[in-house]
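[User] At your convenience, examine this fold.
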Amino acid sequence: MEERIKMVLLCTWNSIASDIAEVEAEMGNDTVSKEIVMEMVEDADRLEMYGGDGEAVKVFRTMKDLDRERIMNETFPYSSY
């Protein structure tokens, strides 16, 4: 299930990355920080909209905070994107 969750996270990021990068560029940033990536991916209903795997999203949403954070860090290992 964790691999499915990671795919949901990556699919979501791939769907929103250009919009987030554009906003960051308007603010003078050449990259998007890992923290912003993780926040934007998990925010609102983006996982449900772009993730493509409702069951994996439900499991992720019900995980303990530490488990969600670990999976997010494994999925997005770089300091910026």
Residues 2-75 form one domain. The chain has one domain: 2-75. The chain has a mean pLDDT of 98.
